[in-house]
Amino acid sequence: MRKRLNVFLIAMLIGGLVSVNMTHFGMVGAEIEITKPSSPEFTVQLIDSSYNIPPTSSVDPYTGLTATQVERHIESRTIKLSIKNQPFTPFLVEEATANWTANLQYNIRWKGSFEQDWHEIYIPTNGFAGAHLESEYTVISFEGEYSATEGLKLHYPGLIATFPPSGQVDFQVKAMIGYVHRDPLALGWIFTGEESEWSNTQTITVDEGSVEVPEQSPVDPAQSSTQNQFGAQSAVTHSGIPWTEIGLFALFSGII
């Protein structure tokens, strides 16, 4: 009698284990549809962001003499893009053994008005510009030194250039909904999700720029990319044998 009971319990445990695994793999195979975003509306401005460095003084620790730095004026210009956010709420995507947060993100590309090739500022490896969903607009700024003879010098990942005085620069923006993750086959970072078409073109002329107090500090694309890539994506991996299976095996051993 005891032997028959053990066989019955073992059969039930095996059936439960198979059911758990079928449910687990069913979740893995499920696909979540990501809606394609619309092309964003945006404006671009060239702002005079010049500033003064106040005078400073310091005492030489070896001679005791006081060294004074006079006040300096720094000529600076900021390219400010204001992108109108579309309604969006981040959501979780389950893929294999990882959970990813799908976010609204932006890519930007630029070119000289009289050239053919566009240059994209962001790539999956560095991450894209995350939307500031707490406000109506996402503001992205690039600040650089300016002179009337050499123009505007910018040094950002994806935007290393010197725009000459009176030069014209075109900009376009693309909206993206999805997440950045590693692809073992591609040996690098890739974007998974949906992308809009590129927006209409907006153009600036590199000159003295409008006088305006920027609404926020210039965004460092490298720092922003790190936050987008490692903060916004929120990947949670689950490796090893599930706890349900471990418990079943332990119970199975006790019966035997």
What's this model, at a glance?
The protein is an alpha+beta fold and 256 residues long.
Give your account of this protein's structure.
- By secondary structure, this protein is of the alpha+beta class.
- The protein folds into two domains: 2-30 and 240-255; 42-237, no CATH class.
- The chain has three helices and 18 strands.
- The protein has helices at residues 2-29, 221-232, 243-255, and strands at 42-48, 51-53, 56-59, 66-69, 72-74, 76-84, 91-95, 98-112, 119-120, 129-130, 137-147, 151-156, 159-163, 168-183, 188-195, 202-205, 210-211, 236-237.
- Strands 7, 8, 9, 10, 14, 15, 16 and 18 form an eight-stranded antiparallel β-sheet that branches. A six-stranded mixed β-sheet has the order 13-12-11-6-1-17, with no helix packed on it. Strands 2-5 form a two-stranded antiparallel sheet.
- Helix 1 runs antiparallel to helix 3 (243-255).
Determine the strand fraction and express it as a percent band. 35-45%
Shape: globular
- In whole angstroms, the N-to-C terminal distance is 14 Å
Question: What is the tally of helical segments?
Answer: 3
Uncertain residue ranges = 13-30, 216-256
> Roughly what is the average pLDDT, rounded to an integer?
78
Which structural class do the helices and strands define?
A: alpha+beta
Total strand segments: 18
Order of helices and strands: HEEEEEEEEEEEEEEEEEHEH
Helix content: 10-25%
Number of domains: 2
Report on the biggest sheet. Answer: 8 strands, antiparallel
Gyration radius from CA atoms, angstroms: 28 Å
